[in-house]
Amino acid sequence: MMDFEAANRIQRLRGELASIRNQAAERIRDLEAALGQARAEVAQARQAAAQASAVAEQAQASAAEAKRQASEARKQALEAAKQTEEVEQRQVLGTDSETSRKRLERAQTEQARNSRKALLSKALLVLDNLARAMEYEHTAVTDPAGLVAGLRLTYWQLNDLLEGEGLRPVETVGRVFDPKVHEAVDIDVSGKSEPGIVTAELQKGWYYENEVLRPARVTVAGAVPRRHSPSERA
Fold first, then answer.
1. How many structural domains does the chain have?
2. pTM more than 0.70
3. Of 60, 112, 179, 218, which residue is the least packed, with the fewest Cβ within 10 Å?
């Protein structure tokens, strides 16, 4: 009788041991899956941080180029001032006519304006790069707050600089498409807006004084055919 009870007890213990082993194996598999997912998420975060760093470096390079353009514009302005001074001196000596002086002044004014427009066009590239860099705000893992704060400050400062130089943005979303200031690059067929209405802005457009420096690249609502019910088709 004792041998029978001992055998039953041993059998139960073996069953419990097998159950514990199965549970442990299942737990180990769950932990390995969680570890693999965590490793994948870390790799993805590192990749996003590297992309954000690359965009920031590109923005810095564009800013350096804009600074160089500004220096060149200042040199041209000094040269124009020197030429104006020479014209005034010749006028005092009576060697230039009033017509020649006005023609030279107009040429200098146009040259300075063209230099300014070229500088502003370069600065717009910096603004675009900074805007793209800020898109990595939610994925940056290395000092995200410092990175985003610096990019935002630079973006706002550059935007104020451009507006102070006579630039202002082209209005887009909700406006009727105007080929003079908008460049359509996509069509919205969702039917949520009236045909011809701008529904999304893909790249900002800018005015310089009263002239379009760069048109805005936009998505425009297109006409969507109305679906007929079976009774209407009959």
1. 2
2. no
3. 179
